[in-house]
């Protein structure tokens, strides 16, 4: 996931078109959120099981 984020940042740097830039920004935001969830689950700050 971290490698994917690095690649998205590189793509964002080279984006020529505003639509492409917005798409990459959205993908980057999603990937960063996914990584935050993974790290929180590993640290025990987030329970992966549903509350019911």
Structure explained in plain terms:
This protein is mostly helical. It has helices at residues 2-14, 18-43. The longest helix has 26 residues, at 18-43. The mean pLDDT is 89.
Short description:
The chain is mainly α and 52 residues long.
What is the strand and helix layout of this fold?
Layout: H1 2-14, H2 18-43
Pick out the low-confidence regions: none
Could you tell me how far the N terminus lies from the C terminus, measured between alpha carbons in angstroms? 29 Å
Q: Largest sheet, if any?
A: none
Structural classification: mainly alpha
Number of helices: 2
State the shape.
Answer: elongated
Strand segment tally: 0
Helix content: over 70%
- Determine the oligomeric state from the structure: single chain
Beta content comes to: under 5%
Rg from alpha-carbon coordinates? 14 Å
Mean pLDDT: 89
SSE order, one letter for each helix or strand:
HH
Task: Identify the notable features of this structure and list them briefly.
mainly alpha; single chain; 52 residues; 0% strand
């Amino acid at each position: 996931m971290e490698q994917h984020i690095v690649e998205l940042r590189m793509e964002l740097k080279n984006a020529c078109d505003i639509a492409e830039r917005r798409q990459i920004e959205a993908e980057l935001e999603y990937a960063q959120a996914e990584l935050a969830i993974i790290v929180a689950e590993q640290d025990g700050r987030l329970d992966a099981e549903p509350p019911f």
